[in-house]
Request: fold
Amino acid sequence: SGPAMAAPKKGGKMRVGLGHGSTTDSLDPATFENLYSQVLGSALRNNLMEIDSNGKLVPELAESYTVSDDARVWNFKLRQGVEFHNGKSLDAGDVIASINHHRGKDSKSAAKKLLEPITEMKADGKSNVVISLKNGNADFPFIVSDYHVAIMPAKDGAVDWKSGTGTGAFSLGSYEPGVRASLKRNPNFYKAGQGHFDEAELITIADVAARTNALTTGEIDAMDRVDLKTAHLLKRRKGINIVETSGTQHYTFTMRCDTPPFDNNDVRLALKYAINREAILKTVLKGHGVLGNDHPIGRSNIYHAGSLPQRSYDVDKAKFHLKKAGMSNLKVDLSAADAAFAGAVDAAVLYKEHAAPAGININVVREPNDGYWSAVWMKKPWCAVYWGGRPTEDWMFSTAYSADAAWNDSFWKHDRFNELLLKARSELDENARRKMYVEMQTIVANEGGVLVPMFANYVMGLSDKVKHNEMAANWSMDGFKCLERWWFG
Amino acid sequence: MNAEAKTTAKTDGQSDVILTMRGLRIEGYADEVWHEIVHGVDVTLRRGEVLGLIGESGAGKSTIGLAAMGFARDGCRISGGQIIFDGIDLTKASDDELRALRGSRIAYVAQSAAAAFNPAHRLIDQYCEAPVQHGIMPRSEAEADAKDLYGRLQLPDPDGIGFRYPHQVSGGQLQRAMTAMAMACRPDLIVFDEPTTALDVTTQIEVLAAIKNIVQQFDTAALYITHDLAVVSQMADRIMVLRYGNLVEEGETRPIVEDPQKDYTRDLLAVRTFRKPPVDEPEGDIPLLRVENVTAAYGKVPVLSGVSMDIHEKRTVAVVGESGSGKSTTARVITGLLPPSEGRVLYEGQALDPTYRKRSKDELRRLQMIYQMPDTAINPRQRVRDIIGRPLEFYLAIRGEEKEARVRQLLQMIELDPDDFIDRHPGELSGGQKQRICIARALAAEPELIICDEVTSALDQLVAEEILKLLQRLQDDLGLAYMFITHDLATVKAIADEIVVMLAGEVVEQGPKQEILTPPHHEYTELLLSSVPEMDPDWLDRVLEDRAAAI
Amino acid sequence: MTMAVAGSAFAGQSSPWVSRIAVAAVHFFVIVLFLGSVQTNTWAAILGFLAIHAYSVAVLVYWSRMARSAAGDTVIVALTVEYLLICVLFWELFSLWAWSTFFGLVLVQICAFAMVRYWRELRHAPPTAWFGMVVILIYVMIAATAPIIAPFGETEIVASEYEPWGGKFLMGTDNLGRDTLTRIIYGARNTVGFAFVTTVLAFVLGGFAGLLAATLRGWVDQALGRLVDILMAIPSLIFALLILTVVGTSIMSLVVVIAVLDSTRVFRLARAVAMNVVVLEFVEAANLRGEGLWWIIRREILPNVMPPLVAEFGLRFCFVFLFISALSFLGLGIQPPTADWGSMVRDNATLISFAAGDFQLALTPLVPAAAIALLTVGVNFVVDWFLHKASGLKE
Amino acid sequence: MSDIGKMVAQRLGLGLLTLFVVSLIIFLGVELLPGDIAQEILGQAATEETVAAFRRELGLNLPPHERYIAWLVNLLQGDFGKSLANKREISELLDVRLWNTLFLAAVAAVISVPLALTLGILAALYRNSIFDRAVNIMTLSSISFPEFFVAYILILFLAVNLGVFPSISNISEELSFGERVYRCILPALTLTLVVVAHMMRMTRAAIINLLASPYIEMARLKGLKPGRIIVKHALPNALAPIINVVAINLAYLVVGVVIVEVVFVYPGLGQLLVDSVSKRDIPVVQACSLVFAMTYILLNLLADVLSILSNPRLLHPR
Ligand SMILES: Nc1ncnc2c1ncn2[C@@H]1O[C@H](COP(=O)(O)OP(=O)(O)OP(=O)(O)O)[C@@H](O)[C@H]1O
Ligand SMILES: Nc1ncnc2c1ncn2[C@@H]1O[C@H](COP(=O)(O)OP(=O)(O)OP(=O)(O)O)[C@@H](O)[C@H]1O
Ligand SMILES: [Mg+2]
Ligand SMILES: [Mg+2]
Reply:
C-alpha cells in the first residue's frame, strides 16, 4: 500500500504485536538489542539527530550543529523548550550524561565502541554541547542518531533509565518485560505533526502464527516480521495490508579466514559461486528481499556500489576456483540455526543442494538457538549470521570488516581495505569518498570472508485503519518510530 | 423347622417348586472354541428345600449354581435347556428382568467372601445396596435389618461390625456377613458356592451352624455347593452328585451318604480312608532337621515362642493348628526366610545359617518347600518345561537333552503325560495339576526334606488324596522326609508319622501319631479333632448340642 | 556385549553351546554384510537384500521351531536389544538410512516371529487390533523400502516450493520445493525408527531400574527413587534444553536424552507394578532356590509386568514424536535436512491458519500430523487388545 | 492417620532435599551452557570489554561455588534475590506469573479432569463399542498432534472463523475473573486436548482391569445396573492409578505449558523460565525451577495421600 495522502488524524489506541521482547529486557538503552526495546525506546525517548523517512539525517533534539574543518569538534545546539515527561527541561547536562552512560570503564553499553573516539564533552551554556573526537569523523552525527544514544533526564551526572522517562511522543504507563507495555501520548511533544495516537500498547507475540492470527482477528493493529510463507495469503485477507521496506538488513554465511579451508580465497570464491542466490531469495525470503553481492552495503546506503557486477550461481566457476585451490571436492560444515535468521536452516539446506554439483559437500549442522551468539558465532569456522546493517558505510565496515573490529566475524585482514577505511572516514569530499567506498566494496566482495546472499526486507502487517507516510527503510517499523509517525485513518 | 415339616412341604406338589432347570447346557469358550461344560442337567428345587451340589473341582457346580440366577460367567454361555424360576424362564428373560430378580429374589454367597466383598466399601453399605437399589426398603430400615441379621448370625458387636471394612473382619465373620447380605431381600433362593472351603475346621463349624440356622429361620430354598460330602450332608435335604458336567447320582441325603449307588459317589465317601502304613521308630540320634527353641517375630509382633521339633529321615511330621497359629512362620524360619530372634535350626546336627542368602547352594537344594497356593507358587509366564527344568539346571547342572529327559521322567513320576504337559503354561493346568508341578519342581532338586505348607488345602478331596498318595509313594521310593503343615486333621491322620500341634505360636502337644490321636487329648487338640465334619447328617446338630451343653 | 545377550537368548534352548555361538555368529555376520553392501552400491544392496531375505526365512524357520519354548519371549527381548545396539553402533559409521532400512527389517522379523508365536491368538484378534497391526505393518514396510518406493531423493529439490497436489508430485512440494510424498515416506523411517529406538531404550533403562528397585528394595530403591524424583522435578523441556545445548543435538544425544527423560516415567510404572509381583510366592521360591538377581528380574518378574508396560509403551511411543517437535520449537531436534514428521508439522504449521484461503496448502502440515495420529491409533489399538487379553476379561 | 502425618513429614523432608539437588543441577546446567548472561544480553553487541564490565556489575567474576552459596544463604532467609537481567525482585516477578500459570492450569484442570474421567468411565462401560472406539480414536489423535498445532487449529476455528474466543490470551491484573476465564478458554482447551487422552485411557484401563474381580461379579449377581457397578464398585478400587495419572497431568499443566504460553501469549512461568535460561539469568531460572519442582513434589505427595485416603486398607489398618 502506498503512502496515505490524507492529513493525519489524532486519537485511538494503537496495539502493536512484535515478535521480539523477552522477560529479561530492561529499559536501559545500553543493553537494547531487540526490536521491542528499540520501538519502545524510540517512542519514549529521542536522540540528538534522527534519520527521517527518506533516509536523510536531520536534527531531532538538536536544533542544528556545526563542525570544525577536520571533522573533529562537533557543536550541537539543543532545541529550546523541550520537556521530559516528568516536566524537567532538557539541557546540555542531560545530553552529556546520556552519552557518558555508554562510556567509561564500567560501561557495558553496546555503543561503547562507537563513542570511544570522544575525547572531551562539555556544555557550552545550557543549550550547547561541544564534543571533541580523537580523529576526524564525518559521520559522527549518524552515530548520535543511534538508538542506544537516546537522551534521558540526568541528575548529578547520572541518567535515570529505570523510569523510562524521556522526551518522546509517548510516556510509559506500565511495562511488563516480555509481555507488554502501555503508553500514553505525551501532550507536550515538541515535534509538530507527530505522535497521533492517544494510547499505545506494545505486545510481545513471539510466535508468528499467533501474531498473524491476532492481526486477523483485530486484536492488534500492526505486526512485524510477517511469515513470508503465508504473506501472500495474508495479503488477500480483508482489512490487512502488507508493507515492506528494503534497507540494510542482510544475511550472511560468514567464513573464518583464519581457519582452513577458508583461509584460501579460492575456496571462498568457489563457495560464493556455488550458491544460487535467486533460488534462496525466492524460497527462503519468498522474494521479499534483494540479492546480495557479498558485501554488506545495501542499496539504501549512499555509496552503494551499483556498478559492481552481480555475482551469480556458476558451477563451473566454482569448480574452477576449487581446482585452483588444489581441490577436486570439498567437505565443510555449515552451522545454522533459526536464531541466526529466520530460514537460516532452510537456506543452508538449499545451499547444500546447490553446491553439490560443484563437488562441494556442505554438511548442515543445525545448532541450538540457545546460545547461538556465544557458542557458534565467531567460534565455528562457518556459520549463518544476521546483520541489521548500519546507516553508513564507515560504520558498517568498522564494525565488522576492519582488522581491529570487535565483531570482525570473518577474522579477515586486508591492508588496503583498512587503509582506505581510515582515509575515507575523515574525508569530507563526496566524490573522493564514493570512490574509496566503491573500491572497498569490491575488495570485500572478491576477497572477503563473508558470503552475502541476500538483503532481507522488513515485512510488516498492518490493519488498513493504520495510515502512514513514506516508510523509513533504515530499520523495521518505520525506523522504530511507528508509534510516533503513524495514525489511524 | 423339623423333619415332619419338611416332609409335608415336599409332598405338597408341583406348585411349590421354585426352580426348575431342564436339560441345562452350558458352554465355555477356551482355546478359541466353545466346549460344553454342563451337559444337560436337570434340577428341581422346592421352596424351603436345601439341595446340595457336590462333585470334584471343575465338575461344573459353580456354573450350575450361577445358571440358577440366569447368569453365565464371562466366556460362558447357556446354550440349551430351560431355567424356570417361579414361572419365569431365565434363559429368555431380558437383562432388566434378570437384574430385578438377582439380589432380590435369588441371592448368591460366594466361595471367598474376602474376594467377593468390595474392599472399598463398609460391610453395611454393601448389605444395604441390594434392598435399596431394588426398592425393597429404605436405607434406614435396611440398616436396622442388617444389625438384626448380624445378631442372628452371632457376629460379635452386631451394631458396630457393619461399619467395618471387609479387611477389618476375619474370614469366618466375613462369610457370615456375606450370608447376611444374601438374606437382605429375603430371597426365595440362595446359592451358596462353597461358603466354607476356605476356612479352617474350627471356623467352618461356626459358619455352617449359622447358615443352617438362618436358612431354617427364613424357610429359604438353597443350592448348597461344596466338594465335601461330610459338609453337605449336614446342610442338605437332597444331594446331587456331579462329575464332568453330568449328573452322577441324586437322592435324599441320608440314603446317599449311607448307601451310595454309584462308584464315584463311593469314592468320594472313601476319600478319608487313606492311611499310611505305620513305620518303625527312627534309627540314629541325629535328626535330619532339628528346630531348637525358636522364637521369632514379624517386626515387633511376636509370632513364635520357644518352638522345638525334630524331623527324622524318611518320616513325615505333621504340623497342625488353626489359622494364624504360626505354622507357616515355622516353615519360614526353617527355610531361612525369617531369621529367628532366638534359637536355631540344625541340619544333620550342623547349624544352618539363619538367613537363606548365606546358605550354600547345596543346603538350599536339600531343603525344598511346596506352597499352599499353586497359583502363586509357580510363575504363570513359564512353561512346565522351564519350571521343572530350572532346578535341574541350577543345582545339578543338567542341560540339553539330559535335562529334557529328566523333566519327562519327573512328569511321569507325578503322573502327568510328558508329551501333553511339557509345553503348557500354568494357566492351562488345573489346581491339582499345578500342585503336582510344584512337587515335581521340589523333587527335581533331589532334596532330602520337603516342607509342604498346606499343599492340599486348596484342592478338592479326590485330588488331594491323589497328591497324598503321590507324596507317600515318593517317600517310599526316594526316602524323603516331610514336614507337613496342615489344618486338616483328616490329612494328618492319613499321612503323618508324628504330629505337632500348635496354638498361638507355641507347640501345645507333639509326639507320634498314635499317641496324639488316642485320648486323652490336650483340650485344644480335642477341639480340633471334634470339629472335623463326619459323614453323618446329624453330626453338626450333635456337636453343637454337645458344645452348648459343655458351656 | 551383543554376543552375550544373543548367547543368553539361546541358552534357554537345548542345543549345545557351539551351535548357539554359531547361530549368533552367522546372525551377526549377515548383518554386517548387509550394512556394508548397502553402503557400497546398488547391486550389492540388492544382493544384500536377497541375502537378508533368505536369512530371514531361515531365522523364521528356526524360530517357529522354538516358538513353543519359553525361551521365545526372551529371544524377542534379546534380539530387540541386540539390534538396537547394532543400530547405535553403526549409526555413525553408516548413513542414517542404512540403519533405518535395517531397523525396518528388524521389525519385520520381530513381527514375523511374534506372528508365528502368537498365531493362534492372532487369528482371533478383533478388527481394531487387525487394523492396528495392518497400519503398523504398512508403516514398517514403507520405512524399510523407502528408497525404493519414494519417487525422489530424501533431500532432493525437485521443483519450486508449494507445488499443487497431483501430477508429478502427488502431495505437492514443501517449503523448499522437495516432494512432500517423498519426505513423508522417508519421514516414516526416520521418525518411527527414532521413536522406536528411543522408546525401547527408555523402557530398557527405566524398566530395568524399576525392576531392580522393586526387587532389591532398601537403599537401592531409595536411591533410584530419589534420583528419578529429581529428574522428574525438573521440567523436561528445560532439562533437554540444558543437556542438548551442552552436548549438541546429534541423533545420538537426542535419543539418549529423551530416553533418559522418558525412562523416569517408565521407572515409576515398572517399580509400582513389580512391587506387586515380587511379593508373590514364585519369586520367593526362586529366592529360596538361590537364584541370582538377574535371573529373578529377567525370568520371574519381567514376564509378569509386561502388560502395563506395553500399555505405557503405546503412549510413550507417540510422546516421543511430540517431544521432538516440541524441541524443534526451541531450535533443537533432528538435524536437517533429515525428513521427520514432527519437524514437517512444525515447519509448515503456520499454513494451517490459512486453511480457508488455500486448503491444499493447509494440508502440508496436516499430512504428517495425520501420519503420526494414524500410527498412534494403530499402535494403541494393538496395545488395547493385548491389555484386554491380559485383563482376563473374556467378553 | 498419624501414619499419614508421618509420611507427609518424611516426604516433605525428602522434598526439600530434592529441591536442593534440583537447584544444584540447574545451577550447574546453566553454568555449563555456553555463554553467560553478560554475553547473552549484549548479544551480537558483546565485546570483551563490555562483557567484562557487565560481569563485574553482576558479580559474575566470583567463582561459581561462592555465587551458589550466596544464593542459597539468601534463599534460606526467604530471599529469592533479584533478576540479573533487569534487577527486579524475583519474588515479584514470580508472584504474578505463578498465579497466571496456576490459573490457566486450574481452568484446564476443571475442564479436562472431569471430562477425562467421564469419558474413561463411559468407555469402560461401553467397552469395545463404537463409542469406545470413537473416543479412543479422537483422544489418541489429539495427542498425536503437537500442542502448537492443536492450538493453531483451535484458533483457526474458534477465533478466526467463528470469532467466539480471542486468539491471544494476554491477561492482565485489571481483568475481572470472568474476563480472565474467557481469555483462558482457548489455551485451556488446547491443554485439555493434550492431557485428556492419557487420563482417559488410564481410567478406562484401570476400571477394565478390575472387571474380572470376584466383587464385580458379586455386584452383578446383586442385580445392580452396569453403570452403578462401574461407578460404585470398580471406580473406587481403581482410584490409585487414576489419581497418579491425574497428578502427573496436573503437574504437566503447571510445568509443561511453555509452548502453549508462547502460542497464546500467556504470561506464565514457563515463558519466564525459557527466556531466563536463554539469557542465563541464573537466579530467575533457579527460582522458576524450584517452583516447578515444588509443584511436582506437592502434587505427587497429594496423589499419594489421596491414594491412601481412597484405600480403606491403608486408611484403616487393622
Ligand atoms: N469363563 C470360563 N471359560 C471357559 N471355561 C470355563 C470358564 N469358567 C469355568 N470354566 C470351565 O468350566 C468347568 C466347570 O467350572 P466350575 O467353576 O463350574 O467348576 P466347579 O465345579 O465349581 O469347580 P471348583 O470346585 O473348582 O469351583 C471347568 O472345567 C472350567 O475349566
Ligand atoms: N509378613 C507378616 N508380617 C506380620 N505378621 C505376619 C506376617 N505373616 C504372618 N503374620 C502373622 O503371624 C501369625 C502367624 O502366621 P502364620 O502364617 O505362621 O500362620 P499359619 O499357622 O500358617 O496360618 P494359616 O493356616 O492361615 O496359614 C499370624 O497372626 C499372622 O497374622
Ligand atoms: Mg466353583
Ligand atoms: Mg500358613
Remarks:
- Confidence is low (pLDDT under 50) at residues 1-14 of chain B.
- The two ends of chain B are 25 Å apart (CA to CA).
- Chain B has 24 helices and 20 strands.
